[in-house]
Amino acid sequence: MRYDRTVHLDTDFATTVERVREALAEQGFGILTEIDVTATLKAKLDHDMEDYVILGACNPPLAHRALEVDRSIGLLLPCNVVVRSDGAGTVVQALAPNTMVALTELDALRPVAEEATQRLDAALTSLTTTDVTT
Questions:
Q1: pLDDT computed for residue 23 by the predictor
Q2: What pLDDT does residue 128 have?
Q3: Which of 132, 114, 116, 112 is nearest to 124 (CA)?
Q4: What does the alpha-carbon distance between residue 97 and residue 80 come to, in Å, rounded to a whole number?
Q5: Are strands 30-36 and 89-95 parallel, antiparallel or unpaired?
Q6: What is the pLDDT of residues 56-77, one digit of tens each?
Q7: Percent of the chain, pLDDT > 90?
């Protein structure tokens, strides 16, 4: 089972992060958390790596619906979106919302996961019209 939704872009890291924030906002997602993996690994382990950030995206109405089905679903929230450098371009990856259904085996989460997938795919597609991996 694939657990990611991925696009490859020919834009620099900083531009991509800003575009991802805007694309997610247009689909009703806010960014609750941001983890600068590159800076963290440098500070804690003195390890150098490519630009890599994890954005914790949340669509409050969808999160509320999911939590009404299963309070433990918070373990899978917010939806993580990774932006990372990849050669001259960038990669944007989002956790596939259907992962919630697969892991919990709760069919009642399916409508939430389907709507979240539509919204995330719309955000990713707005970044580029090619290379959306399902």
A1: 97
A2: 84
A3: 132
A4: 10
A5: unpaired
A6: 999 999 999 999 999 999 999 9
A7: 93
Q: Which residues contact 108 (CB under 8 A, 6 or more apart)?
A: 69, 70
What residue has token string 């575009």? 19
- Distance between CA atoms of 107 and 90, rounded to whole angstroms? 35
> How would residue 121 be classed by pLDDT, with cut points 50, 70 and 90?
very high
Q: CB-based contacts of 89: which residues, under 8 Å, 6+ apart?
A: 8, 9, 10, 11
Q: In a 10 Å sphere around its CB, with 0-12 CB exposed, 13-18 middle and 19+ buried, how is residue 41 labelled?
A: middle
The angle subtended at Cα 48 by Cα 83 and Cα 35, nearest 5°, is: 40
Cα–Cα distance list, 10 to 72, 124, 131 (Å): 38, 14, 11
Residue 104 reports pLDDT greater than 60: yes
Mutual angle of helices 110-127 and 13-26, in 10-degree steps: 140
CATH homologous superfamily for the domain 4-127: TT1751-like domain (3.30.310.70)
Closest C-alpha to 83, from 31, 28, 27: 31
